[in-house]
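Objective 1.3, modelling of assemblies. Example input:
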Amino acid sequence: MEHVEVSGLKIPVAEEADLFVAGGGSAGVGAAIAAGRLGLKTFVAERMFALGGMMTSGLMSKIAISASNHGIAEELLGRLDAHQKSDFLSGRHEVPIDPELAKWMLDKMVIDEAGAGVRFGTTITGVIREGRNIKCAIVDSINGLEAVKAKYYADCTGDGQLSFKAGASYVAGNEQGYSSSPTLMFRIANVDIEKLIAEMESHPGVYKSEQDTYSNHKISPAQNRKNIAGDKYAHFADFIPFIRQKQKENPGFLNEWELEMMLQRGLIFMNQPQGNHVLVNSTRIPYFKGNDSKELGDAMVAGRKQVAATFRFMKAFVPGFENSFIMDTGSMLGIRESRRINGDYIFTGDDVNKLRRFEDGVVSNFGGVEIHSVDGKSTDIKELQGGFYTVPYRSIIAKDFDNLYIAGRCFSASHTALSAARNIAYCMALGQAAGTAAAQLLHRNRDNVRDIDIKPLQKDLEPVI
Ligand SMILES: Cc1cc2nc3c(=O)[nH]c(=O)nc-3n(C[C@H](O)[C@H](O)[C@H](O)COP(=O)(O)OP(=O)(O)OC[C@H]3O[C@@H](n4cnc5c(N)ncnc54)[C@H](O)[C@@H]3O)c2cc1C
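Predicted structure (tokens):
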């Protein structure tokens, strides 16, 4: 068996592939399906035991998909609908999914149909690099250390783990290095949502919101009821005056930090149309950088404390939650931003706001700026009034390398631009672009990701541009 040597250790080469996909989240799935369908031998290393990343293991079961995205993301949503006889996709641009069903459907699409070799429980721990090329990735699993050789690599780890280990240059967070604050998602089951809607209709003053939040947080109770009947999301926010009122009536119910935590964002939750449960997007971890393992662990613990306090309040006071229970919390922390790898072009907030369309655009998106303040206390939102921008091919190729793509939320973007361009369907489309581009390179016998023929690539990517 062939071996490679790293720091005196002899590591067996376990696999050889055309494309090595690091991480099987939204971007990794897009890359693996696109490349696999185009005949590439594709290897996916995923540290969890499911595909989907934040979408499934992080419980972010609300997929934002633009009207212009007819790629793999749309196909996934259509197939989930067909399987469960629902019509959720018609509610685009926000489509609910059941994370458990999505895990199964992604196994089917990536492993059974696209033929990608997926290794779960497998963490990328290092890289062997020669000049501007990655020669192999080192992975750790129950087997111990192994090497995987490939011609092209796609870093879809969200945190830019493969690129970081290869020594790529990157930036993180805002000017002070802090990221948009993360959230630990959780779901509450056995909720009587109709009871809540009826209460909100009869006492509108009690449930009014205080913060200037997204348009979908201002949906009226009547519209929410209609949405639920029509397989669409119902949104509820922010209950801040309600929280203050309940604390006044029940002094000491929430201690000081619990009250402060609950008032930073209020309660934000959505119905999950598959049943009588809701998805809660309320917690926030302040002053997070996302590049230190102790910080990551502490953030998860802090997230669970916030979940416990939030749920205790909801069960005690919010109508319809009297018999509810916590169904689950995310197995992954909801990290909005960590490392952003430097590409040949850094996509900017100006590109988003001006709806710029690039000559080498490979993916279009519709999201506006959405920065969750580093102290967790506010959200800077600029919803775009229709229209799309594109992301250039140069932003998905790592500046310091000739055979490395960067797709998903670690792609080359500024802090502001990433806040706009990180939704699930769009990350999937970035992966689709990377996988499709790798196939073109292989079929034309080219090694360098910059030797792409952009027009034919754009033709292949028409569904997502
Ligand atoms: C709180 C929150 C709310 C959001 N709201 C929405 C929303 O409403 N709608 C929407 O569309 N989007 C939303 N998003 C954005 C979206 O969920 C993410 O930006 C997107 O899922 C990121 O996809 P990704 O593939 O880049 O990364 P991920 O989904 O994080 O996938 C990365 C994968 O890489 C794996 N990995 C990481 N490191 C390694 C390693 N060393 N070895 C092996 N595997 C590794 C991880 O386990 C994971 O599976 C939200 C995000 C957050 C955090």
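The chain has a mean pLDDT of 94.
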